[in-house]
Input
Amino acid sequence: MHETVIAESLLAAISQEAAKQSAKPIAAKISCGTFNTVNDEILRFAFTAAAKGTPCENVKLQIEHKPIQGQCQKCKQNFDVESPDKRCPHCGSGDFQLLPDAPLVLEEIEFE
Amino acid sequence: MQKKKIGKKILSANEEYALKNSRFLARQKKLCLNMISSPGSGKTTILARTISELKGKIKIGVIEGDIQTDFDAQKIRATGAPAVQINTGGACHLSAAQISDALQNLPLADLDLIFIENVGNLVCPSAFELGETAKVVVLSVAEGDDKPAKYPAIFAKSKVLLVNKIDLLRAGDLVDFDVERVKADARKLNKGIEIFPISAKTCEGMTYWYDWLLKSVRAQHQGLAFDR
Ligand SMILES: Nc1nc2c(ncn2[C@@H]2O[C@H](COP(=O)(O)OP(=O)(O)OP(=O)(O)O)[C@@H](O)[C@H]2O)c(=O)[nH]1
Ligand SMILES: [Mg+2]
Ligand SMILES: [Zn+2]
Output
């Protein structure tokens, strides 16, 4: 549900940059973590609604989901944690500590 | 056609307010806990009970977040504690700017501890930092023991997990809730999380929660770094 707030903040950030560049934005790349995640379909829908009638109207969103990383407590190596039962791919231990999740970031804007 | 790297946090406007709140609270040496759960897990009941039981030991103020009504603020005021109600008018979470305003409307000089009762929702509030010292997640046994696995974000981000309504387990009304499973799943996401099984109704288990609160208020008062 809070995708609406995210869409509005995203629109503001893209609009601001477009004004600075005096160029028309056509695509934007964003990334999010595992716990700071978004629903792609809802975010695209909310963004389309928010951007209607603005210079960002036809901006295509590319959304990258970054898996959270864990650090093995035995061998100290880092790896992607896709599920809580994940085991260390290096030593097989199930004892890991989650590392900080990736935030929601506007990575890149593509202009016409 | 040209691409431009930006690298800007999308919720940075909220995070700026959150940072401002957290610096303000640290300067004032106030502990501030952001309480998050599904609707009806017992947040208001736990708060009312906690305020009454800790009267004479610490002074508590509450910021209540609800989509509509001031029912929860009224329940808190009935205990004698000050409460500020925020109505989000449909929004599924509180934002840091709302907390900045609400803090100005509490008698802060008289308080040791500020609770924020977030809008009943296990998902959205976890994405919006408010500048709180720590998050407290409440899960009631009626919701099922699979919730940490299904909604990991809030369990990963909280300092405390209150497993509420354990009186229902004793009453035999609900036998398929495994407290040990919840503890194990939550600790997989968050090694340092404090877990207190409680009943806000019968007060069972509440003393461990109170001890943690008193200890944390003391640490905050001495300006000790709060271990999240
Ligand atoms: N049996 C039992 N009932 C409880 C307990 N704690 C709260 N309740 C009941 O659960 C219902 C909801 O409690 P609230 O305190 O209003 O829950 P809440 O989380 O504040 O709800 P929202 O603010 O609407 O999200 C009420 O009927 C409470 O009396 C408990 O420990 N045991
Ligand atoms: Mg409530
Ligand atoms: Zn390993």
